[in-house]
Amino acid sequence: MSGPTRGFLGGKTVLVTGGTGALGSTFASAISAAGASVVLLARNSERLAATAARIEETTGYPVRTIVGDLADRAASETVAEQCWEAFGRIDAIVNSAVPDGCQQPLGDLMTTPDETWWQVFDPIVLGALALAKHLAPRMRESGGGSFVNISSPTGITPYPGMDAYGLAKGGSSSSPGTWRASGVHGTSEPTHSPQA
């Protein structure tokens, strides 16, 4: 019995970070439905397995899962290697990972705890940067690829009590322009919720 007919992303492999979250899983489902092989990266193995099974059952295309924390800088190279080896290539990365609880007011400049700034900034900005640094050279050697950073209106227009999240999303939005100077194609795509 033949498999499903490939869509416009047929033959491509796409990595989705934060793949078990509301946005990440939605992106992954749509990307899979368009014919791509999908790699889901997230921290919770049980949620990863459940999300992958649901997407595969719905679309008929393969989904692989990698357990990893983008805030763990020491593990970034290993995680990137695991993501690449899942299908032997990556053509695009959708950076949608955000730490739990950061999409609600956590404080302003004066009241946000010091550790909270890093807890929010690490996975959204530095985690995406680490993946780009480790994977971009291999993507170039394989014919190129794209990075898509999911931005938020909060990164452009201040939202009360969401200073850490807004700063991180602002950094995420500007990252692709910086990466282009290194020959990496990237874009920043907005969501429609001020807390997305």
Brief account:
This protein is an alpha/beta fold and 196 residues long.
Describe this structure in words.
α4 runs parallel beside α5. The longest helix has 28 residues, at 114-141. With 196 residues, the chain is an alpha/beta fold. 43% of the residues lie in helices and 16% in strands.
SS field, number of helical segments = 5
| String of helices and strands | EHEHEHEHEHE
Give the number of domains.
1
- What is the distance, rounded to the nearest whole angstrom, between the alpha carbons of the first and last residues? 41 Å
CATH class, anyone? Alpha Beta
CATH architecture call: 3-Layer(aba) Sandwich
Q: How many DSSP-defined strands?
A: 6
Average per-residue pLDDT, rounded, comes to 85
Quote the CATH topology. Answer: Rossmann fold
What percentage of the residues does DSSP assign to strands (E)? 15-25%
Extract low-pLDDT stretches. Answer: 190-196
